[in-house]
């Protein structure tokens, strides 16, 4: 049995569906903007954020007597748009919802948000509100594992489906920015005031972003796989326990993920590696070393952070969807912001859109605490 994508959706400052997001990226356009005196943050920053009241306006089209936070609204909107593409009864006990987020409603810790109970800051409580909107009585699973959350959540979906406990798993990744998040990254000296430059020698740090992204998965027999089906084929999570915030200098955890998912696979079948590519000094260096160690030197590497910024718990889901869209269109997207190689690993980084006929790709993520994850995706006709 294979884990197959049924439907997807992306809601971001670029657009409200997956196709419009992909079309904008094809043109090389970004949603990154320079902000001053925003979110109560003293220092200026560059990020991808929804316009004020944008999500409220979108959510007004949905009928609800309940009050929801911005985080919850984005999740509900994205799930709703994805589920509308199917005939799935999301209220069924055969449907599980998995929520991927790093910070959820963390802004509720601020006393100014008294409209909601303080327990709403707990991701389990907030995720249950999301599930209740869809009248789904299953306890939602929360994945909050730093930057790898979105890939981690998809691997959890694969495990739950293969356990035969559920017929469908809805994976939604969401994060919104707040003073807590932006100032936290600023305190780590991790943010660039300019638009980020993944893998570039002049990179100065990352930009943050807001988004919601949903993938719905189910199981199919191998003989049922259609030509345009996307299969989440193999996933791995490895923790190298290197440092609370600094990645391994040898890329050990990331390399072990790649080694596992590529066991018995042909590297020449891989169209591209969609890396984490945050534009921080150490992340990009580490990934380049892991990719080279795995012998992927001649496989194109790209990053989407120059379009969306780092969307935290949404990143792994959003970037997987866009990568599928790219293969469907026979395209390897460029790494926006990249001009000149600034990592030691011998890797091939895209700075232009490239055509491809290959049907496999790898999605990589790494995060604080030494966590690393990778997924191998295959388009149905290429199993």
Oligomeric status: single chain
Helical proportion, percent range: 25-40%
Q: How many H/I helical runs?
A: 10
Strand order of the largest sheet: 9-16-15-10-11-13
Q: What is the CATH topology of the largest domain?
A: Peroxisomal Thiolase, Chain A, domain 1
| Rounded radius of gyration (Å) | 19 Å
Number of domains: 2
Strand content: 15-25%
Based on helices, strands and strand pairing, what is the structural class? alpha/beta
Characterize the largest beta sheet: strand count, sense, and whether it forms a barrel: 6 strands, mixed
Short description:
The chain is α/β, with parallel strands linked by helices.
Describe what you observe in this structure:
By secondary structure, the chain is α/β, with parallel strands linked by helices. It folds into 2 domains: 2-222, Thiolase/Chalcone synthase (Peroxisomal Thiolase, Chain A, domain 1), CATH 3.40.47; 229-382, Peroxisomal Thiolase, Chain A, domain 1 (3-Layer(aba) Sandwich). It has 10 helices and 16 strands. The strands form 4 sheets. A 6-stranded mixed beta sheet has the order 9-16-15-10-11-13. It has a 5-stranded mixed beta sheet with strand order 1-8-6-4-5, sandwiched between helices. A 3-stranded mixed beta sheet has the order 2-3-7, with no helix packed on it. α8 (281-293) links the parallel β10 and β11. The relative contact order is 0.19.
